[in-house]
Write a sequence for this structure.
């Protein structure tokens, strides 16, 4: 199986490769005072890993029973795990989403039906199946991350910018 877009065969991010942004995603042009440089895959992986790690820290500090977005955690893990040199397996993704395996499988099926992730290939031991972002899932995730990176979408949780949210 070939390495996913943006990664070497060893799972390392191609640090110099920039992301092809979807102009319809609204990330460009950046507003005055915001970054306009096209982020590299490495920069987006770093941002995704920070978002994922921040979610785990939030759970540890405030309690995991208050928060839950398994689909988002699975998408972030599919993007982050290969860059960290870890295989994104069916079970690893359930663990990364901090949900039981049955819940992880259910969310993976939903994400596959939506065309955001795909199963394919096996780990070197031949027993565990790998999961990765589909080309469309990678495009959508990278466009969202690029919007965060460039400041054209406020990072969560800022509901006041989400339309109809809290107003000062």
């Amino acid at each position: 199986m070939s390495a996913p877009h943006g990664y070497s065969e060893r799972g390392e991010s191609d640090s110099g490769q920039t992301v092809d942004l979807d102009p319809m995603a609204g990330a460009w042009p950046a507003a005055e005072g915001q970054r306009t440089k096209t982020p590299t895959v490495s920069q987006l992986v770093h941002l995704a890993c920070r978002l994922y790690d921040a979610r785990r820290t939030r759970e540890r500090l405030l309690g995991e029973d208050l928060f839950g977005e398994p689909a988002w955690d699975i998408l972030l893990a599919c993007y982050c795990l290969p860059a960290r040199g870890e295989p994104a397996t069916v079970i690893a993704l359930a663990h990364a989403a901090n949900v039981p395996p049955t819940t992880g499988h259910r969310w993976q099926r939903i994400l596959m039906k939506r065309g955001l992730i795909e199963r394919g290939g096996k780990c070197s031991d031949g027993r565990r199946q790998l999961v990765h972002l589909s080309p469309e899932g990678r495009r959508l995730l990278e466009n969202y991350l690029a919007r965060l990176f460039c400041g054209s979408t406020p990072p969560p949780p800022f509901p006041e910018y989400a339309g109809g949210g809290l107003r000062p």
